[in-house]
Specification:
This protein is mainly α. The chain folds into two domains: about 5-185, no CATH class; about 190-480, no CATH class. Helices cover about 70% and strands about 0% of the residues. It contains 18 helices and no strands. The chain has helices at about 5-20, 25-45, 50-70, 75-110, 130-145, 155-160, 175-180, 190-220, 230-260, 280-285, 285-305, 310-330, 330-350, 350-360, 365-385, 390-400, 415-435, 450-465. The longest helix is centred in the first third of the chain and has 38 residues, at about 75-110. The radius of gyration is 24 Å and the shape is globular.
């Protein structure tokens, strides 16, 4: 079920009324109802996906209890490995099996060995990477004794399947979300209103910014050889705003929806286009994924390689971001995408002292904006890999970008009037985010006058009504 669909606008009020009015003060019943509503929400795409998420949840629920009950370290470690194997094998089969088989066949044929075609027609379950990582983090936390294993099935299954963040995050930690399912929820008017504000801004990001950008990004990337280099550059920038509006818009809607039910989810985006370097960018972009990989992959790996000195840090960083790329999809484009970020962050680590000396010699504001420009440029360049179907297409796009037409005036994309107002909307959008960058979200209007608040609500709603594309476009990160 899409957030930007009629079905969701029918589904949400029904769930809200039942949850707060019919099941008021009944914690267990509310949790069970959340599971049922979440399974209905997720099964809307394909009911067969429900079998997978149920098995994944059940296995980690039972294994984690056994880990906590055991005092024998060897047995606890074996149970942890079992959980990891179940999760990663499931993820590998559905997401990476055909990628692995196809590349193995290429290698075998290159060696002169006849390879049979073992590829399968596999449907990728929506959001499998998100809930798999969320479930794995729970088992790891239980193993390391950071949390207690939940003995309440309704609490654990609700934690894994909570519909607002089920299919595209944020990837929640058990230590933060499970206690919220365990305690009594009392309707908080201020929290619910704040949730509606955040949802409103999320919808604007998605249906106004992202979906309007998508109408131009698709033709440019799919027919890159037909456009001038300056138009390809414009397409890169538009895709940057598309993917940001799409994914951060989803996160805002998810976090806002959770607030309607009395839950606080973690922040997933923190105005990333104002990052002054690539390291800072990843502290602001997809925060739930970057912190997950930092805590469960990078830090343990850096500790293991600490005897290597700086080389250990560089290696851990490069491997972590290679896996960041692979997490996004079974394609070499994503792997190269991740490697580029690993290299960029390693360069920043190696040049940190030199950059600090330069910053002291320059105007601080000028230094900051130069950093913002190069960080955003690097992001746009790497997004060519993210958007392309293959390495060949990505490098074809890059080669067409590097010619003298880069300095020409871009072709006016059609429809002309829609393109012009899209550029105006993007400029206004980025200015609004700049002036609200110190807030939790743009429409965080808790301490302003009633008339000002409602003026902003009405204006935002008018922009959505007049400029949105109500085509129920799927969210980009659903494919991950």
């Amino acid at each position: 079920m899409l957030f930007n669909s009629i079905s969701f606008f029918i589904f949400l009020p029904i769930v809200f009324v039942i949850y707060w009015f019919l099941l008021k003060n009944k914690i267990k019943e509310q949790n069970i109802f959340i599971i049922l509503a979440s399974y209905f929400f997720y099964g809307w795409w394909d009911w067969r996906f429900l079998i997978l998420i149920f098995i994944s949840s059940l296995s980690d629920y039972l294994i984690s209890i056994k880990i906590e009950e055991s005092s024998i370290e060897k047995r606890r470690r074996r149970l942890l490995h079992l959980s990891i194997i179940i999760n990663l094998t499931t993820l590998f089969f559905f997401k990476y099996y055909n990628f692995f088989i196809d590349n193995l066949e290429i290698v075998m044929e290159g060696m002169g060995i006849q390879a049979n075609n073992y590829s399968l027609n596999i449907i990728l379950p929506v959001g499998i990477s998100f809930y798999t990582f969320q479930s794995m983090s729970y088992t790891l936390d239980v193993y390391y004794k950071d949390i207690k294993a939940s003995k309440e099935p309704a609490v654990f299954f609700a934690y894994i399947s909570f519909f607002p963040q089920l299919v595209a995050g944020p990837i929640e930690r058990a230590s933060q979300l499970i206690p919220q399912f365990q305690k009594k929820r009392v309707f908080n008017y201020s929290l619910a209103v704040d949730g509606l504000r955040q949802m409103l801004w999320g919808f604007l990001k998605k249906v106004v910014i992202a979906d309007n950008c998508a109408t131009y990004v698709g033709p440019i990337f799919e027919n890159y050889s037909d456009y001038s280099a300056s138009t390809l550059l414009l397409g890169m920038v538009l895709f940057a705003f598309q993917i940001y509006g799409d994914f951060s818009g989803y996160s805002d809607i998810a976090i806002g929806t959770a607030k309607l039910f009395g839950f606080n989810l973690m922040e997933n985006f923190k105005y990333p286009f104002f990052a002054a370097n690539v390291t800072d960018f990843w502290r602001r972009w997809h925060i739930s994924l970057s912190t997950w990989l930092r805590d469960y992959l990078y830090t343990p790996m850096a500790i293991r390689t600490r005897n290597w000195g700086m080389n250990g840090i560089l290696f851990s960083t490069l491997l972590t971001f290679t896996l960041v790329g692979l997490w996004h999809g079974a394609n070499w484009t994503f792997i190269v995408f991740g490697i580029m970020y690993g290299i960029a962050i390693n360069i920043e680590l190696l040049t940190r002292k030199k950059r600090k000396k330069i910053s002291k010699k320059m105007n601080s504001l000028l230094f900051y904006w130069i950093g913002v420009f190069f960080t955003f440029t690097f992001f746009c360049v790497t997004l060519v890999l993210f958007r392309s179907d293959s390495i060949t297409n990505a490098f074809g796009f890059y080669s067409n970008l590097l010619n003298k037409s880069l300095f020409s005036i871009p072709e006016i994309l059609t429809p002309k009037f829609r393109f012009i107002y899209l550029l105006i909307l993007i400029i206004v959008f980025i200015l609004v985010e700049w002036f609200r960058k110190n807030k939790r979200h743009v429409l965080d209007l808790e301490n302003v006058s009633l008339y000002y608040r409602w003026g902003i609500y009405v204006l935002t709603t008018i922009v959505i009504i007049f400029f949105a594309r109500f085509s129920q476009n799927s969210f980009i990160y659903f494919q991950f």
